[in-house]
Design goal:
RuBisCO_ssu_dom, alpha+beta, Ribulose 1,5 Bisphosphate Carboxylase/Oxygenase, 4-stranded antiparallel β-sheet, 323 residues, RuBisCO_ssu_sf, globular, 14 strands, Gamma-CA
Length: 323
């Protein structure tokens, strides 16, 4: 039976106190590279029962990756994914944190990341970039937030934390009345490693940058919103649609489409089209154009799907019948 660090014990205690279910997944080095995790059994019950079950599982899977899961059984969504064991035996140290829903915080390697008072988004960004992760974003108005229906925002793939923070500042400034969250994406495993709400409606439009704060005072240029789409792709699609497709691809979401004639549109009865299989922007745009041509005279909408969470993250009508 393996020992569990005090920081991991605290994290488990918080999950249980907030009514979340605790789970585990494991993977050997090969499966880890492909993001193919297997579920481990965790006996539910008191804190001591859960801890004993997890300690036993860590011992059984020595030499493998093991991650701790926090699951909201009502919404059937994960609120936490945290690596707690690696093949070399290293275990992630988790600082004092709270789970998504209150003052959100996800932390690893002893570095705290939180929103609300004393926010330190910069540290989260640095940690993610230092690990080679991509920075993604999502936003939602209060109604969509309650339904867990997020829209993809811009993303950053690079190594300069100042540029990533500038992108986040710009997004928050553009969405003062929305919820905005930061996404950390492991591009190799094609999975999310962090989901962190960094802004809520009614909060000041600022981000804490290493103890200070950042307004929208950056020269960072992104393809988000009404900004120009820096691409040489020749397409009949609008710049906004191309930007949406780019963001979905950058965040490793599956792209799909649906179509409906006027009668079915009024009853919200959509037909599913063939999924967009391309991973390159130019190819994805070409497949979308083919879909639009095949369903000329109908409504067509673009769908972004988080295949791991099995939920939609984006819906956008990209064609309407001409009157």
């Amino acid at each position: 039976m393996s020992d569990i660090s005090d920081s991991v014990r605290q994290q488990i205690r918080r999950l249980l106190s907030q009514g979340y279910r605790v789970g585990l997944e494991y993977a050997d080095a090969r499966r880890f590279r492909t993001g193919s995790w297997q579920s481990a059994t965790v006996t539910q019950g008191s804190e001591s029962t859960v801890l004993a079950s997890i300690a036993s599982a860590l011992g059984e899977h020595q030499g493998e990756y093991v991650q701790l899961l926090g699951v909201d059984t009502q919404s059937r969504t994960r609120v936490l994914e945290l690596m707690i064991q690696r093949p070399d035996g290293a275990v992630t140290q988790v600082s004092n944190t709270k789970i998504n829903g209150g003052k959100t915080s996800v932390a690893s390697s002893g570095n705290s990341v939180s929103n609300g008072g004393g926010t330190d988004v910069a540290r989260a960004v640095r940690d993610l970039l230092s690990q080679g992760c991509r920075i993604g974003t999502e936003f939602a108005d209060p109604r969509r937030y309650r339904a867990t229906s997020w829209t993809s925002g811009p993303s950053y793939q690079g190594t300069r934390d100042a540029e990533a923070i500038a992108m986040l500042s710009e997004l928050v400034a553009n969405h003062p009345d929305d919820y905005v969250r930061l996404i950390g994406i492991d591009t190799h495993a094609r999975r999310r490693v962090v989901e962190l709400v960094i802004h809520k409606p009614g909060e000041p439009v600022t981000l804490s940058i290493g103890g200070g704060s950042s307004q929208k005072t950056s020269s960072f240029s992104s393809s988000y919103g009404g900004s120009s789409v820096s691409s040489n792709i020749k397409t009949s699609l609008s710049a906004e649609v191309v930007a949406s497709v780019r963001r979905l691809l950058e965040n490793s979401y599956q792209i799909g489409t649906e179509h409906a004639d006027s009668r079915r549109f009024r009853s919200s009865s959509w037909h599913t089209c063939k999924p967009v299989s391309a991973t390159r922007l130019q190819d994805a745009v070409a497949q979308l154009e083919t879909c639009l041509h095949e369903h000329e005279g109908e409504y067509v909408r673009l769908i972004g799907i988080d295949t791991q969470a099995r939920r939609r993250v984006h819906e956008e009508i990209i064609q309407r019948p001409q009157k």
